[in-house]
Amino acid sequence: MSLLKLDIYGVRNIQKESITPSPAINLIVGENASGKSTLIEAIFILGRAKSFRCSTIKSVINFTQNHLVVSAQTVQENGSRLHLVKPYGIADSFLGPTGSWQLNQKRGTSM
Ligand SMILES: Nc1ncnc2c1ncn2[C@@H]1O[C@H](COP(=O)(O)OP(=O)(O)OP(=O)(O)O)[C@@H](O)[C@H]1O
Ligand SMILES: [Mg+2]
Predict the structure, then answer these.
(1) For the chain, what is the domain count?
(2) Full-model pTM
(3) pLDDT at 56
């Protein structure tokens, strides 16, 4: 699977960012505490539904928010495209199909 576009909302110090990665090699460069590991953490959450830095998703949510959302447009090995959305609330729970959020002026539903 490769990422065409990644939207991150409320993940640690990343309040709201959209990234369009290169299909080849991507370098993540920045000062200490700028959010490099947080970017990798967001991608990990997308695939594994948990953090690699802590046991609860709650501590990954930005201090000023009550939820996070990681969303990605992906291309599967067979060439098909899939839109993944992972929203989590402070109650440690997946928000589920009735959870609603807004990202980049668009409302979303989970899958
Ligand atoms: N829940 C949170 N809400 C807001 N900010 C947070 C939260 N958890 C951690 N932070 C802050 O987010 C930043 C995380 O930075 P991160 O570890 O991703 O940076 P980095 O670029 O990987 O740094 P380094 O070069 O030291 O590895 C730190 O400033 C940290 O204090
Ligand atoms: Mg780091």
Answers:
(1) 1
(2) 0.84
(3) 83
